[in-house]
Amino acid sequence: MDPGFTAEQDEIRRTLRELLDKRCGPEGLRAALDTPAGHDRALWAALAGQLGLPGLALPEAYGGVGCPRTDLALAAEETGRALAPTPLLATSVLAAPLILALGSDDQRARLLPRVADGTLTAALAVPAPALATALALTGPGGGDWSGGGRAGGVQARPAEGGWRLYGEAAQVLDGHSAGLLVVAAHTGGFVRSRTLLFLVAGDAAGVVRTRQTALDATRPQARVQLRHVEAELLGDEAADVPGALADAGDFAAAFLACEAVGAAGRALERTVEYLGQRVQFGRVIGSFQAVQHRLADVYVQIQAARSAAYYAAWATGRTEDVGGLALAQALEALRLAAAEGVQLHGGIGFTWEHEAHLYFKRAAGDELLFGPVHRLRARAAERAALFTRTEVTV
């Protein structure tokens, strides 16, 4: 791994930070969260039009920029720093790679160019709270998380040469506003049961979408109800859905780790700025040794998490499987930075008007959706067979 950034990566990060600083300040962020979509559509259009961010990791044949997925993961550090409310995670990190990996030539040609230019947003819909399991972050990714033939989840049935879906998925990231839903549904009888992915238009007849109240408002979530909805099978019935989901999960983990590192770094920056201004006992409180020790601990945690996140971004798509470990490290760093930020801001850190709570909620919300941390590490240990018992013959 080369620890340095290329000129293109530096330019992407610099331009993205400038754009987000202009369009995603504290007031703009709060205004975007209060909109029905839960994100700033003008900001999304700018990210697509000026940077090509939604299609950064998509092949040029489908209207993308053609950069490696590493570049998109590294760009996430800047979106995390600003807590940018965009459908980038749902569209370009979770849904688009599945379409690229499993879709037919027609499906790719029809959908991916619209994803790349920002005119089509997408969401991955799996039954709650199975997102981390489906992405093989906290479990093997198999099993009956999609419904398993029992009540709950989403069921798929062949009908009139196509498919119809019935069921419900909750905690769907940006599911209330996405133009396209990639739905994981259970199909087949008990013996031949399996999970397949289906394409459903967001405004299709029989689709009922309701925005849910989420702990982290910067990641809007929705409950999606499917009432005998016509659906298009993604790819074919022989598709390796668990493998594609696991690959998407490893990339998502690297992306989220970089996002968390960016958020943690910004939370620490804001805390240091405040401690250099607040005066107590005739001195700025940032000059007290006990406070400096706490900040130093946070800094070390963030730097360690940043190294892990960068390595995971570089390793994505290779044989190394480190995304989950990097995400665990980054979520811990963000949780520590946000918690210390709230405490060291004193009374103002607990107020709704201050931004400190937004970083704390991002840490807690991501761990609820993609963790918890101890299960991310347990899954990584399982994959590496760290605790496999060996028989000793005497």
Automatic annotation (TrEMBL):
Q: Which PANTHER family match?
A: ACYL-COA DEHYDROGENASE, ACYL-COA DEHYDROGENASE FADE28
GO MF term list:
acyl-CoA dehydrogenase activity; flavin adenine dinucleotide binding
InterPro entries attached here? Acyl-CoA_Oxase/DH_mid-dom_sf (IPR046373), AcylCo_DH-like_C (IPR036250), AcylCo_DH/oxidase_C (IPR009075), AcylCoA_DH/ox_N (IPR013786), AcylCoA_DH/ox_N_sf (IPR037069), AcylCoA_DH/oxidase_NM_dom_sf (IPR009100)
Determine if Cytoplasm is one of this entry's keywords.
no
Q: Which family does it belong to?
A: Belongs to the acyl-CoA dehydrogenase family.
Q: Which residues cross the membrane?
A: none
User: What's this protein's name?
Assistant: Acyl-CoA dehydrogenase
- Per UniProt, residues of the Acyl-CoA dehydrogenase/oxidase N-terminal domain are 6-118
Residues in Acyl-CoA dehydrogenase/oxidase C-terminal domain copies: 255-383
The answer to whether UniProt assigns keyword Flavoprotein to this entry is yes
Q: Which Gene3D superfamilies match?
A: Acyl-CoA dehydrogenase/oxidase, N-terminal domain, Butyryl-CoA Dehydrogenase, subunit A, domain 2, Butyryl-CoA Dehydrogenase, subunit A, domain 3
UniProt keywords (A-Z) are:
FAD, Flavoprotein, Oxidoreductase
Q: Which cofactor does it need?
A: FAD
